[in-house]
Fold this protein.
Amino acid sequence: MSNLGQNVYMDVQPSNVVSTGKVSYKEGNPVIQFIIGENDLHLMGSSVRFCGNIAVYRDSARTIQTEASGNLLCLDPKLGIYSIIDTLTLSSQVHKSTIERVNNYNRFMSSYMPILSSEMESLGYLNATTLVSPNIGTQRIEVCNNTNGSGAVLHTEGSAFAVNLPCGLLGGRNPIPLSRNNGIGGLMIEIQLAPDSQVFFSDDESATGLTDAFYELSNLKLIAEAQVVAPNTSVGNTFEYNSIHSYFNSVNSTNAVLNFNLGLSNVLGTFINIVPSKYINNFAHDGLGTTPMLNSDDSVADIKQIVFTRGGIRMPLMYDIETQFKNDVDNFDGDPQQLKNFVNAITPYYALKHTQLSPHTFTNDVPQIPHFAKGAGIMYGLGVAMDQISGQGVNFSNVNFGVQIENNLTTDSPNALYLFVRNRSTLVFTENGVQIMN
């Protein structure tokens, strides 16, 4: 009896985990690799889930935190388990060609997650699967303080998670062919872990006693669904998907002019999130926060004007975005035009059905300790959609993408800007290998 058209369910163990099954950045195991071998299957990208347990320790003695510990260890509440993923790489298992690589993946998710999920979702199924929460205290108790047991019998497996991996290839509508002759030749998924000092931060910014805090993963696996297809020896097929590309720069002036050589020919949208450089890899601050630009005293350096350019010419907007802070310095609400363009860069604003963006989260009213903001924290950013009509994108293969930002940065305070670009890519697979056309 033929199995064609039937679904099969995969349970893939990591190929490079040590014999103990424990993985942590601190212990020198920063990469987790899963291999889905070549086969006459079509992988359903949206069904892929990264599963396991995460245990959180305050020190090398594996002390589990309680609310009475002081200088409490926290995890970014809007990110949860995504905080630990620094880089996501997808490549062909047979041909070893990289299909998609998303650097600063946790920074990408710090904007993607809250824009496309509601507060109720983060309280419900997202809380159970991704360990996010709309409240930093609740999230800390559930994850960072989790003993997964009580009394003398404590399990050190910590909190369980099962998350999808949003990216271009796995997020596409079309199934992914895994065969050698008429597909990508198997799929290899690599997750590079983030440093502990980037993942965790102190609730009061003192970080005393947290210098060797760390997380540990266990029971790791990848689950997915695929469909059995008939063997096919034909070659020369193509596969389209919206890839994600990451770039980095920093700003330390009132009139910042940034230029990026994207090298991409079908750009659909770009967006930027921001964090003070001193916050990065620092237990005293949330290095994955998405704040406005901040001065050295953590006061907000309001953005007055934004200009997007292609080769030095305004595009796609033929005008400057002059925010309300150009004249009204007493208004703390986020600028509505900036917010709308930011959302449009990720998903069409008119199609947005649920989000955590609000006057409390997209705001210039930042507390002295930014991660004490309301809800899951500040969710600030800027961006622009390049093509919402044809879906073909804009060519930046030979010209630079530019952003000009006029702001109130009046002190010596470098701010890190992470740029993410959605591009319409084409994957060409032949008998000799795969090729990516960006």
